[in-house]
Amino acid sequence: MSKALIKVEKLVKKFGETEILHGLTVDFNEGDRIALIGQNGAGKTTLIRCILGLYTYEGYLEVLGHNPRNERTEILKHVGFVPQLPPPIRMKVSELMNFFSEIFGVDKQVYIDLTNKLNLDVQQHIDKPFLKLSGGMKQKLLVSLALGHNPQILLMDEPAANLDPAARVILFDMLKNYREDALMLISSHRTDEIEHLINRVIEMDLGHIVVDKPFEAVKHEENC
To answer: 82 - beta bridge partners?
Structure first.
């Protein structure tokens, strides 16, 4: 049986009086390739942010045996994250890569090589502030920074957003060949784009998990 890398029990998240996550209980396991689907407002991004330790919450949440609020630094050593919207980072591209290189002990060339694979010649933009890059450039760099330290957990919120068609194909090929023991959680509106990657589908609706099935079972039901 696969080891649970993330354990969620009776997880509740409120903003003010509004409850966004309604007592979620779910395990995310080693080797899982999960499509996290659902309409806008379903709670997908909120769940990911709780896992990252960005939000307070009620209930129980464990990531690699650690509490994401109290031991966030330790957890993030083993997590790669691609947000849905690029953060407003003011650092230059070179400074950002140096920062990640120092945190994870990864040679900066690893990040450069990954951006090159995604058809971004990052050296041409090395002295630009991250904020000044185009949406596609930002996304390629964020993907490279997430993958560069070869983390055991990949959390990707619409990772193909802003990518050109060629880069989307390259990204999904990189993910398809990623380490087999990793947990990959991909929030997406387009399961057709990632169906060759995934082995499990979790659908959220209004803060609840309404579907949690192997991808093959979901595919079979669609074809019946």
So the answer is: 156
Segments making up each domain of the chain, as ranges: 4-223
pTM, entire model:
0.93
Over residues 130-156, the pLDDT tens digits come to: 999 999 999 999 999 999 999 999 999
Report the C-alpha gap between 12 and 10 in whole angstroms.
6
Identity at 38, one-letter amino acid code: G
Q: What sign has the CA pseudo-torsion 64, 86, 36, 101?
A: negative
Residue 127 φ then ψ, to 5°: -100, 5
Looking only at the bridges linking them, the beta strands covering 33-37 and 183-187 are parallel
Alpha-carbon distance of 111 to 101, in angstroms, equals 8
Query: Which stretches does DSSP call E strand in the chain?
Result: 4-15, 18-29, 33-37, 58-63, 79-82, 153-157, 183-187, 200-205, 208-214
**For residues 210 and 201, is the Cβ–Cβ distance under 8 A?**
no
When pLDDT is cut at 50, 70 and 90, the band that residue 1 belongs to is low
Residue 8 backbone phi and psi in degrees, to 5:
-125, 125
Residue holding tokens 């589908």?
201
Q: What count of residues does the chain have?
A: 224
Q: Which of 144, 146, 176 is nearest to 78 (CA)?
A: 146
> Which two tokens mark 217?
């079972």
Architecture (CATH level 2) of domain 4-223: 3-Layer(aba) Sandwich (3.40)
